[in-house]
């Protein structure tokens, strides 16, 4: 069972998400909260697999709550899926920088939401197609500043560095395998080693690190 916590300041929205997810045979809604502080407290109490986190909430917002939840080593098994009505650059960037594994707009379909929970729960990253381009443009804006040094990249082999760059370019394992002319199993091995060496939770964090470090320049792989 995928154990889910829902954090949203709108009672009707929380109830709707809860009813939808609870109807799935492999998902259990373990708790619901109305603000960021409550989300942090409930995560400590229930240690869910996935937190559905609204961004705009009174008091502590969803981004700060995400940062606090994922900075706690006791929540190593928890993933955060950010839900919002705002597909604005700063929200996407800040949420992923805080450690969120996914970003989905609230006007997505019910099937998309259920699928997103499953994707994030198994350790993969998820971005709504509507915000992917905006994310890259935000990275481009951020790159006007000096790249953040990432000495841990020196631990990667040349092939692992190449794989990281392709992940940041949005390629799937199958697409990377085709690009490098290797098996998908080989790519999965490289990806696992990259994540281990760089202490990454998922592909979302890999994208953030690749761009912030200057390893990948927006538009450079086009």
UniProtKB/TrEMBL annotation:
Annotated signal peptide: none
Top-rank taxon, per record: Bacteria
Keyword terms: DNA-binding, Phosphoprotein, Transcription, Transcription regulation
Pfam family, one: GerE
Domain HTH luxR-type: 149-214
Domain Response regulatory: 3-121
Residues the record lists as 4-aspartylphosphate modifications: 54
Name the record gives this protein: Response regulator
Species annotation: Actinoallomurus acaciae
Lineage of source species: Bacteria, Bacillati, Actinomycetota, Actinomycetes, Streptosporangiales
């Amino acid at each position: 069972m995928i154990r889910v916590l829902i954090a949203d300041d709108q009672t009707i929205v929380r109830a709707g998400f809860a009813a939808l997810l609870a109807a799935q045979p492999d998902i259990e809604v373990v708790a619901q909260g109305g603000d960021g502080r409550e989300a942090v407290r409930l995560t400590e109490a229930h240690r869910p697999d996935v937190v559905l986190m609204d961004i705009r909430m009174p008091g502590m917002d969803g981004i700060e709550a995400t940062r606090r939840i994922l900075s706690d080593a006791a929540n190593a098994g928890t993933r955060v899926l950010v839900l919002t009505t705002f597909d604005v650059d700063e929200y996407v960037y800040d949420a992923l920088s805080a450690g969120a594994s996914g970003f989905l707009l609230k006007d997505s379909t019910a099937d998309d939401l259920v699928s997103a929970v499953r994707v994030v729960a198994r350790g993969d990253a998820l971005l709504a197609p509507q915000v992917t381009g905006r994310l890259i443009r935000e990275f481009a804006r951020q790159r006007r500043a000096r790249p953040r040094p990432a000495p841990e990249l020196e631990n990667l082999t040349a092939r692992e560095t190449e794989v990281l760059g392709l992940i940041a370019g949005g390629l799937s394992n199958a697409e990377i395998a085709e690009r490098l002319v290797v098996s998908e199993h080989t790519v999965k091995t490289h990806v696992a080693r990259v994540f281990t060496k760089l202490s990454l939770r998922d592909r979302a964090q890999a994208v953030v690190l690749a761009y912030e470090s200057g390893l990948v320049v927006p538009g450079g792989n086009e």
